[in-house]
Structure formats: C-alpha cells, structure tokens
UniProtKB/TrEMBL annotation:
The keyword DNA-binding does not apply. This is ABC transporter permease. It comes from Rhodoferax aquaticus. PANTHER family: ABC TRANSPORTER PERMEASE, ABC TRANSPORTER PERMEASE PROTEIN NATB. GO terms for cellular component: membrane. Keywords: Membrane, Transmembrane, Transmembrane helix. GO terms for molecular function: ABC-type transporter activity. The chain crosses the membrane at residues 33-55, 191-212, 233-261, 281-302, 314-332, 364-386.
C-alpha cells in the first residue's frame, strides 16, 4: 500500500466519488431532500406576501369596531373627521376575540360618556383585545393613537378658550430619525430566511452522514470496507467530503429558490426592499462552508459509534435541533447581539447572513471566529472517526 500524498489523495477521491454515487442512486431519499429545498423560497415568500397584504389591507380599511358609540357624539365627530369608519361590534365580541374569529380590537364607550365630558370630567373608555389574539392586539396602538389625538384636540380647545397658546402642551418638539437602511428594514420581515438555510445544511448533511457510517455498519458493508488497504483517514475524508457536499448542495438549492420566489411578492414596497440576488447566494454559501464541514464531522462522529441506524438518528436529532434553533437566541436575547454569537455554530452563520440581508459589510473580524470554530470542531471529530474506524478494523 502506497502512503505517498498522490496515492492518499487518490484514495480520498475514490471514496468521495463512491459516496456521492451512492447518494445519487438513492433517488427517493434525494427527492425528499431536494424538493423541500426548492419549494422553501416560494412557500416562504407567498406566506410573507400574504401577511403583509393582510396588514396593509387592514390599515387601508381604517375601521374601528365600537360598542356604545351613540353615547359619545363628540368622540364620533372627531373619529369620522380622521377619515375612520365606525362599525358596530358584534354582541359576542369578547367570545369572538378569545376564539380568534374577531381580529380587531373593540372600543367600548360607557352610557355617561358625553355627560361626563360636558361636566369637565374624564370619562373612561375601554379598548378590548385579547393578548393571545395577536392580530387583534396589533390594532390596539392605532386606536390608542386615535384617542390621544382626541385628548390633544380637547385640551387645545380648552386652552384656546382661556387665551393660552396651544404650544404650551408641547414643551419639546420630537422628530424621529430612522438610521436603518432600506435593506435593514426589509430584513425585519425576512429575518427567518437564514434559519431555513441553516436547517437545509443540517438535514442535507444528516442523511449522508448517517448512511455513510451507521447505515454501512447496519448493512454489514463497513467492516469489509475497513479491510481494504486504504488509510482510514482517507476513508474518513472521502466520506466527510461527500457529506459536506450534499449539505452544501441542499443549501445552494434553498438559496437559489429565493431568487425567483421574490417575484411572488405582491406588495410593491416589500418587493422594492427585498433584493436577493447572486451576491447574496454566493455569500450565504461561503458562510455555510464552516457549518457544513463541522456539522458533517459531528454527525459522523456520533453515528460511527452507534450500533444501528435508529440509534444514530436519535443521537443526531439533538445536535440538529440545538444547532437549528440556535438563531432563536438572537431573537430572545433582550440585550441584543453579542460578540460571542460569532463563536457558536449556527448562531454565527445566522448573525452573518443577517448582515448580508441588511447590506452590511462582512469583515474578517466577523467571519474569522466562525471559521476557526468550524475548523477545530471538524479536525477533532474527523480524528475521532478515524480512530473509531481503526479500532473497529482491529477487532
């Protein structure tokens, strides 16, 4: 057996090609991986487009559901002057809000509203919603702003009758300035895309990693393979290369699916903000390389010691779940993005892909932690797999 570098690389290539051919022959499994990857972009864009269209339609309707509007003609006059349309709420609005069949909050006015207003008192109104009903809760700020406008108009009128300038109500003039770019604002809506790409890499690598280790052991083909005069490290590298390639192939299809999918966006503003093209695809793939390499090695290390395919699946599920849900940390952390995110597999890729979506630069300082982590994990796991194969061959 030759141990020279050309021979070693040839062995790696032969094993790699064999694993890729085996993966392509299993067309049923391949279709189960590739079809969801191709449909991912269109389905996500359709759902996003539908959500934005629904919110826009509700904003354009400018309707307020009211109970007891007949008790407040002054308030009615103000609301109608703001071009809002008043509609009577259903009698069972509380039950419908709880059942999520009513998607608008309800303004409830008491019978003594107008009398109390004329006496100079402060009548109470209720804005009824259900915090578990997110669509209804989203409409509460709009009604609250409407009522604040009514309060300001009343206060201005009273001050004017007493000869006091209305400017006394506003000691400070507030102007809002949004620093976010157009792409950054769009990223708030499309922030879930990186998580789908990460899941595509994980599931693409998972199938190949389990089949090339635990699958071969269960079929009884691993031990004969180890008897061949091929360095075990060459076997490991060849199999690992095929695992990483399949993970990256699924990630490529998933990323490409967002290019035509953006044409499905029906909202003009969102379509103008969301720009996903060749640069984003290339950047996403480059950022996934450390994740595909390291997670492919981790999954092989978990599976190589498993006695059955099912045992390997059970062990790998925890890793896939933890890494796949790692981006949730950035959503749930009230302190905002932290520097250690860039050192955690999955979380680092999510953070960097979000920068790409926001149109921000990818600096070496930001990319390097994820690459170093991926290289270290990959080396440790591949050496573990090679050692496990040597032990299995020695038995």
């Amino acid at each position: 057996m030759s141990t020279g570098t050309p021979s070693f690389l040839r062995h790696c290539w032969v094993v790699f090609a064999k694993e890729v051919v085996d993966a392509l022959r299993d067309r049923r499994t391949l279709l189960r991986l590739l079809v969801p990857a191709v449909l991912m972009g269109p389905l996500l864009m359709l759902a996003l487009s539908g959500l934005v269209a629904s919110l826009q339609e509700r904003a354009e309707k400018r309707e307020v559901l009211v109970v007891g509007m007949e008790h407040a003609p002054t308030l009615r006059n103000f609301i109608e002057r703001q071009t809002f349309t008043l509609k009577a709420a259903p009698a069972d609005y509380e039950a419908k809000l709880r059942a999520t069949t009513l998607l608008e909050p309800v303004l409830v006015i008491g019978p003594d509203f107008e009398d109390a207003l004329q006496r100079g008192e402060r009548p109470t109104v209720e804005v009824v919603s259900d915090s578990a009903n997110q669509r209804a809760s989203a409409g509460v700020p709009s009604i609250a702003r409407l009522l604040q406008g009514f309060n300001r108009e009343r206060a201005t009128l009273h001050l004017a009758l007493r000869g006091v300038p209305a400017d006394m109500l506003q000691s400070v003039q507030v102007q809002e300035r949004d620093l976010a770019s157009t792409q950054a604002r769009a990223a708030r809506m499309t922030g879930m895309i990186p998580m789908f790409i990460i899941m595509a890499v994980l599931y693409g690598a998972l199938t190949a990693a389990l089949d090339s280790t635990a699958g071969e052991r269960e079929r009884g083909s691993l031990e004969p393979l180890l008897m061949n005069p091929v360095p075990h490290l060459a076997l490991v590298l060849g199999k690992w290369g095929a695992v990483g390639l399949l993970g990256m192939a699924v990630a490529l299809l998933s990323s490409l699916s967002f290019i035509p999918a953006q044409w499905l966006l029906q909202n003009d503003s969102l379509q103008a903000m969301f720009q996903f093209g060749g640069w984003e695809v290339v950047a996403f793939l480059a950022l996934q390389l450390p994740l595909a390499a390291s997670m492919g090695a981790v999954l092989m290390a978990l599976a190589i010691r498993s006695k059955t395919f099912k045992e390997a699946q059970a062990g790998s599920a925890l890793v896939v779940t933890l890494v796949g849900l790692a981006p949730m940390v950035s959503l749930l952390n009230p302190s905002g993005d932290a520097a250690w995110y860039l050192w955690v597999p999955g979380l680092a890729q999510n953070t960097l892909m979000m920068l790409v979506l926001k149109g921000e630069a990818l600096t070496v300082a930001r990319v390097l932690p994820g690459v170093l982590t991926g290289v270290l994990i990959t080396l440790a796991c591949l050496l573990f797999v090679a050692r496990s194969m040597r032990l299995a061959a020695a038995r």
